[in-house]
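Problem 12. The chain below contains 122 residues. Write out its predicted structure in token notation.
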Amino acid sequence: MEYPSFDKFAEVVHRYVEVKRDTCINPQTQLQRDLDMNHKKCFALLKTLKMHYGITLSPDSFDLKADERLFDSEEADQDPFIQTVLGTTGPEVRPLTLGQLCRAVLKELNRQRNSGPVLIHG
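Solution.
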């Protein structure tokens, strides 16, 4: 599989997320704030992306620090899968943008291929 450009990545997001086709998304688009996705929809998207690209996501994929997490929800505090992928119950919540998510996917694709640097095509 080729490394996706952000535009190709955005097409995957449009296909799997209930986002109107005319909704403009860009790398700065936040999943929860701009696309009105709750944590359950965000987790579903992450699982879909894992399957679509054949990758594994972890806190390292998102460069999370020990005291950071991507979503704020009680369920995240109780779900081991969510903690494994998105960080533990740290106090600092970092909003997840589509650009960050795309970079995490590219990072894991690169890690899988064990090759040189990943370039994002516009």
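Discussion. Residues 98-113 form the longest helix (16 residues). Students who got a different answer should revisit the alignment rule from Section 12.3.
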